[in-house]
Design a protein that fits this description.
mainly alpha, Four Helix Bundle (Hemerythrin (Met), subunit A), Helix Hairpins, 2 domains, 11 helices, about 70% helix, extended, potassium
């Protein structure tokens, strides 16, 4: 039990110990290097570099796997009110636990299951998920997730309104443009690509209306899209202000205005 407490201090309460701070710094460097390797591998590299990159990948997987297993085992210390299995599951299904799992899963799946090479290439893309492990070590990442969490109801409502608007716009444009452009607007699902590009005001230009009615609808959707794109930004901005104001309340005395110790 003492060993579990010491491990928990290192991996979860690292700010108060030199060993914990060193452990954090090592993992931050390793995560950053892994993201760099994923980017580098997208280039055409000499064949002699492959063994080195593979060795680095194996080393990283070993470190990340041990880190993941230690965090599972020490979950009993962090969730004392839960029994052993429930405390383990609490970490495994948590956002950070899932990120840790997704960061190592692409390495182990091909070893356990016969996987098509195309799917294997797709799995390797998930290695970029390791960048989200930095969320554990930087307050800015945690602040962003906290703001999204407290504003999730407003963001969900906004997303629901956008989906409804996209479906309606796609259906209208399909019935207007399909007789003239059956290849560009073959069905409502295909028209959804036009709706997304127009609503977000990107406008790639590969699909566009040619009828007068279609141009009117497209102009309306583009104007509405300006507001819908700005709406989530406003929601998140207000969330950041609320969180920062709440923190300031604890930094200053509400009676005398003197700064309180953090």
């Amino acid at each position: 039990m003492k060993l579990l407490r010491r491990l928990n201090i290192i991996v979860d309460d690292s700010k108060h110990t030199k060993g914990g701070r060193l452990y954090n710094q090592i993992l931050i460097v390793l995560i950053t290097l892994n993201v760099c390797v994923v980017i580098i591998e997208s280039f055409s590299l000499p064949s002699y570099t492959r063994p080195y990159l593979k060795s680095f990948e194996v080393f990283s997987i070993v470190v990340f796997t041990l880190d993941y297993l230690v965090r599972i085992v020490t979950a009993r210390i962090r969730h004392k009110k839960l029994n052993g299995i429930k405390s383990y599951l609490r970490f495994i299904i948590s956002p950070l636990g899932l990120i840790d799992l997704l960061s190592i899963l692409p390495f182990y799946l091909p070893l356990l299951l016969p996987i098509d090479l195309r799917f294997l290439r797709l799995l390797r893309v998930f290695r970029i998920m390791r960048v989200f492990k930095l969320n554990r070590y930087y307050k800015s990442f945690r602040l962003i997730l906290h703001v999204i969490n407290i504003k999730k109801r407003e963001l969900t409502m906004c997303l629901f309104a956008v989906i409804i608007l996209l479906v309606i716009a796609s259906a209208i444009m399909f019935y207007i443009e399909n007789p003239k452009q059956p290849d560009k607007f073959p069905n409502i699902i295909a028209s959804l690509w036009w709706a997304i590009a127009t609503l977000t005001t990107i406008g790639y230009g590969d699909v566009y209306p040619i009828t007068a009615a279609g141009k009117v609808v497209s102009s309306f959707i583009a104007l509405v899209g300006i507001g819908f794109v700005a709406l989530p930004t406003g929601i998140l901005s207000s969330g950041f202000l609320e969180v920062l104001d709440e923190k300031r309340k604890f930094n200053y005395c509400p009676h005398c205005g003197e700064k309180l110790p953090c």
